[in-house]
Amino acid sequence: MKRALHMITVLTLTSGITGALLAFVYAGTWPKIQQNERAQLERAVYQVLPGAVAFEEQAMGDISLFRGFSDSTKSHIVGIAVRAQGTGFQDVIRVMAGFDQTCGRMFGLRVLKQVETPGLGAKIAEEEFLRQFEDLVLSPKIAVVKAGALDKSTGRVQAITGATISSKAVESIINKALDTVRQGQGGGT
User: Fold this and answer.
1) Which of 52, 66, 155, 162 fits a disulfide with 81 by CB distance 3.0 to 4.6 angstroms?
2) In terms of C-beta density within 10 A (0-12 exposed, 13-18 middle, 19 or more buried), how is residue 120 classed?
């Protein structure tokens, strides 16, 4: 009985000390984590909005909208960047997409977060897939196709072989974000 009580006491103390240490480390690193996430976000905005030197952030439903400007006085809009997310094959996929002011053309795409299957769905974050979204006409939405030629003039991009679910998830995330932005601008879909 004494031995069991001793083991429970030691285990409880060890767990308590370890938990407190973990909470202390987490609290100490949280500001740096937030700072790094903000820096990643800013880099993504500038990557998907070529020519932007400043931006303003605005919440719009489930997405964050960033208006990019070509000057520091914020008098000329370069385009709109949208941070949106949706469910992929494994978990949440978070992207940053850049569009012109009318949402008729897509400038580019960056994947901010994904934990898709390595070697398959994770390819959504690779340049070969992302390049398909550069200078893509949105007529009125994008379409991911399994086979066939890439056709930027009609908004068609090719799915990743073996990762159709992840590719379609990116399509869905972008199209839902477009709908939200267009409705917010009074343009409908």
Assistant:
1) 66
2) middle
- Dump pLDDT digits (tens) for 126-150: 999 999 999 998 878 888 888 776 7
Domain membership flag for residue 30: no
Q: How far apart are CA 4 and CA 118, in angstroms?
A: 45
Q: Are 83 and 95 in contact (CB under 8 A)?
A: yes
The count of domains in the chain is: 1
50 three-class SS: coil
Q: What confidence tens digit (pLDDT) does each residue in 58-79 have? A: 988 778 999 999 998 888 999 9
Q: Is the pTM of this model over 0.85?
A: no
Asked whether residue 146 is assigned to any structural domain, the reply reads: yes
| CA–centroid distance for 68 within its chain | 17
Return the residue matching tokens 């609290």. 27
Q: Specify the DSSP element, H or E, that contains 44.
A: helix 2-48
Residues 6+ apart with CB under 8 A from 188: 182
Single-letter amino acid code for the residue at 60 = M
- Domain holding 148, by residue range, is 45-184
| Integer Cα distance of 96 and 47 in angstroms | 9
